[in-house]
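Narrative of accomplishments. A recurring question from our advisory board has been how the design workflow behaves on a single, concrete structure rather than in aggregate. To address it, we present the structure tokens for one chain from the evaluation set, followed by the sequence designed for it. No filtering or post-editing was applied between the two.
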């Protein structure tokens, strides 16, 4: 490449990139409300993140005329990391640093099925695709020996539509009388755009763009919850539903299957509305093994075409996975009501005890009537009911049926550490987790609140 700096320090490489490469791979549209552009973050930490982090060369959505404004993680479509030395390619330090940036993207854009990223170590490029089971890497690309591959990757990033860049194909919006896949990087810079929606069971639901629940993590269920209401409800109407998306382990039971057994009005449990596995626009089930890892394009080939990655160390083993380590995950959606409040919103100790009582009644009903053991009772999984009764139990992600003939497929003991029963912590067989252990967890929830919070739910020193 002409003009390539003799010493590939970050500042020199960025100057070369914007002089020679950017005009080729990212032309600017005219008279557009938004554009996709490669942007150096410089020394400024990106806003809206979980930690103080910045990428080196990012592909972002932005409004024209905002070139000088500080970037936010919700704008970022693809993240890149620059290193001066080609010897750093494939090393853990560069990979883990890149993974930290990807973690911020998954945290602020949890609708993603994957996040694309790259490293440029000296003149050696490597492309990564991170998903909810880890990451897949390309072979090293020498940008001087394979300039067409280098340009193709960067231009491919910039030209990808919302589904190709990794956004959920079932979350839609109608900007110009035509449905499109919802792209939160665009909605972030143009907040006046219409709210997104989904269709489930023949019913259309409008989604509030702010999240009730999300997680800053990569290899995880990636649970995200939104407020929702009927699509044609007035703009000032209340959000009455909760939409919960997650990447469940393929061998796990489906939470919606358990909740669908509940009769409406059962004390201590949410009201089931609908659940289903999410499908792509082509009808393919959205899962890691097929839809994500088998979703071939020029810049993220399928795992079968890739050589074995470099040897793993303890720091990267859970992120950088080879095929035989893959834990397949399936994206599942659950719709339920009501929209509860955190347990710590209780107004008195009596209110707290009544809420816990209701949740225990719900737990009892699920076991005695449906043979379901919850296995993850915790502070966050008991909510206050907005009306009557007082509380209810949620999050049956790790629940099992006591009638099942085989183990659950989980790799570790199940539960939230702070509230796990002593026997479970001691290494109990997975399916030996029984309702008594859950009752012990309810006790630890109460104990935690009594020690660490006052009568209004405000944190205090023990």
């Amino acid at each position: 490449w002409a003009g390539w700096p003799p010493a590939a320090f970050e500042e020199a490489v960025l100057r070369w990139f914007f002089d020679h490469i950017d005009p080729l791979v990212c032309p600017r549209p005219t008279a557009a409300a938004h554009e996709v552009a490669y942007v150096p973050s410089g020394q400024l930490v990106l806003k809206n993140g979980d930690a103080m982090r910045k990428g080196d060369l990012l592909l972002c959505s932005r409004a024209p005329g905002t070139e000088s404004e500080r970037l936010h993680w919700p704008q970022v479509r693809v993240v890149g990391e620059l290193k001066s030395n080609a010897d750093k390619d494939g090393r853990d330090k560069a990979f883990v640093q890149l993974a930290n940036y990807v973690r911020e993207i998954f945290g602020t854009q949890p609708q993603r099925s994957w996040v694309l990223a790259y490293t440029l170590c000296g003149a050696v490029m490597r492309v990564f695709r991170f998903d909810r089971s880890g990451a897949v890497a390309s072979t090293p690309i020498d940008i001087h020996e394979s300039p067409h591959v280098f340009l193709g990757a960067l231009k491919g990033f910039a030209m990808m539509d919302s589904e190709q860049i990794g956004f959920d194909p079932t979350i839609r919006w109608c900007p110009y009388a035509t449905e499109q896949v919802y792209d939160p990087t665009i909605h972030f810079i143009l907040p006046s755009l219409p709210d997104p929606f989904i269709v489930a069971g023949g019913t259309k639901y409008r989604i509030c763009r702010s999240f009730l629940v999300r997680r800053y993590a990569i290899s995880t269920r990636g649970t995200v919850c939104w407020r929702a209401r009927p699509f044609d409800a007035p703009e000032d109407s209340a959000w009455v539903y909760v939409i919960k998306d997650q990447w469940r382990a393929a061998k796990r039971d489906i939470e919606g299957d358990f909740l669908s057994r509940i009769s409406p009005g059962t004390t201590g449990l949410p009201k089931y509305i609908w659940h289903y596995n999410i499908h792509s626009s082509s009808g393919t089930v959205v899962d890691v093994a097929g839809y994500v890892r088998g979703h071939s394009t020029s810049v993220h080939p399928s795992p079968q075409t890739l050589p074995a990655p470099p040897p793993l160390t303890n720091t990267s083993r859970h992120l950088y996975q080879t095929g035989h380590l893959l834990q397949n995950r399936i994206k599942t959606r659950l719709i339920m009501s009501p929209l509860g409040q955190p347990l710590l919103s209780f107004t008195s100790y009596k209110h707290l005890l009544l809420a816990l009582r209701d949740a225990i009644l719900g737990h009892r009903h699920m076991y005695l009537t449906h043979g379901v053991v919850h296995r993850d009772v915790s502070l966050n999984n008991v909510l206050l009911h907005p009306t009557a009764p007082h509380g209810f139990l949620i999050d049956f992600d790790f629940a099992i049926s006591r009638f099942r003939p085989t183990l659950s497929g989980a790799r570790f003991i199940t539960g939230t550490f702070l509230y796990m029963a002593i026997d479970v912590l001691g290494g109990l067989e997975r399916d030996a987790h029984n309702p008594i252990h859950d009752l012990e967890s309810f006790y630890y929830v109460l104990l935690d609140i009594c020690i660490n919070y006052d009568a209004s739910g405000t944190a205090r020193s023990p």
